[in-house]
Amino acid sequence: MSSSAADERIQRKMKMNKLPKKPESGTSRPAPPPPVAENVLAKRPDVLHLAGYKDGNGDGVANNAGVADAAGDDRVDPNEKLLLSPASDVSSAVIIDLHTRADGQPVTTPSIVRQSCFKKSNLMSSSMYRKTRRRALFKNGECNIVLANVSKLRRRYMQDLFTTLVDAQWRWTLLVFCASFVLSWLIFGVVWYLIAYTHADLAEENIKNTSWSPCVINMQTFMASFLFSVETQHTTGFGYRMITEECPEAVVLFCLQSIAGLMIQAFMVGIVFAKMARPKQRSQTLLFSRNAVICQRDGQLCFMFRVGDVREKSRLIGTTIRTRFIRSRVTPEGETLSPNVTHLKVSVDDFDEEMFLMWPTVVVHKIDKQSPMYGMSAAALLNERFEVTVVLEGTTESTGQTTQARTSYLASEVLWGHRFRPLVKYCKTKLSYEVDYSQFHDMCKVDTPLCSAKDLEAYLTVNESNR
């Protein structure tokens, strides 16, 4: 039978199913509309749900070739086979909708859906099956920790006002810097005005009286008192307004404002200088590799990452590096320790945790019996949830300040069976070592056992005993 004849027969049956049925004799109400059952959906999560889509023309046409080619296990439902199998035509796929007649008999209505007419479901996206990345330390070194329900938090921050202003954003620091001076000028200006008012220097008869001796000469308005306050606090002294020995309270206020001005200036300049000279800015020139790797070195599985310093002049001296392994665990008593921090012993070449960053260096953690990664294989790494935090600390050679750079690596950022590419070579033309930082994050695949370090050690032990 040709495909065109089959298509015409199926279209004829579909039109007959859509015709309304005549009501039986003796009944006035028409038959209820046939209930529609839910569309058949594939049970495998990696298959698109195509139910509910129609052809662009709205016609349902059977594709016998696509139905006949549905492959799969016999235990799979036939309708599901049609969903899981591709259609014979590249631009189409077969789906099945189940409708129910009034007598309860199901009617199968296949239809063709073009690939250009459907979109991939959001539920089937890879982001749904991707594990949530729990990170305690961001890649830039910021801690992913939020404090909640801390009693008297604002009072505690105000008690350490200097550190609070240094840690604040620049716009808030500059706002406090300007507001402190303006408010001090305004407050002392009001006090100068009150002193002149109580001494009757602002009365009209005293202003016109040339023999009257005021507390401050040529200060007859509030604006004049504000300008005198600014001149006094910053020792400007234009020579037009000056204090006299007529009022002792004015002399005392003059001394207090001079001292207060020096204290405010020293405090705010110290904050701005400390904010600009923070050693945190030095960490911007310290680099960590984007990923960590696990491969063999000297016959032993090792966890490795790369660090580097892009500055040529001011080096870090006394540099130390510390790593911590964060993963929750349950004690034999049933207590859940989350998070649980474990020390990872690392080394740089033949040195323990201390190094001199002349060029980019690979930091190595040997996975031995004391390592929390001792029983972790390549397959187990895919399902693990842990975080390795790295803290690099050293003293800046030019300033003598201690700086610190931090980062972390999640299980999804650890590549098994990879090795960092070398990027240091000797340049004969320049007569110096040359570092190519364009390859800082590059790595290559190497042959690495997929078993854990524990199984590898047991395997090597058995082989040695059999020799």
UniProtKB/TrEMBL annotation:
SUPFAM superfamilies: E set domains, Voltage-gated potassium channels. Residues 139-279 form the Potassium channel inwardly rectifying transmembrane domain. Keywords: Ion channel, Ion transport, Membrane, Potassium, Potassium transport, Transmembrane, Transmembrane helix, Transport, Voltage-gated channel. It is a multi-pass membrane protein. Coiled coil: none annotated. It catalyses: K(+)(in) = K(+)(out). It is found in: Membrane. GO terms for biological process: potassium ion import across plasma membrane; regulation of monoatomic ion transmembrane transport. One of its GO terms (molecular function) is inward rectifier potassium channel activity. It holds the Pfam family IRK. One of its GO terms (cellular component) is plasma membrane. Residues 1-38 are annotated as: Disordered. Residues 286-457 form the Inward rectifier potassium channel C-terminal domain. The keyword Cytoplasm does not apply. Its main location: membrane. Residues 1-11 have a biased composition (Basic and acidic residues). The chain crosses the membrane at residues 172-195, 250-274. PANTHER family: INWARD RECTIFIER POTASSIUM CHANNEL (PTHR11767), INWARDLY RECTIFYING POTASSIUM CHANNEL 2, ISOFORM D (PTHR11767:SF113). Belongs to the inward rectifier-type potassium channel (TC 1.A.2.1) family. This is G protein-activated inward rectifier potassium channel 3-like. It comes from Sipha flava (yellow sugarcane aphid). The gene is KCNJ5.
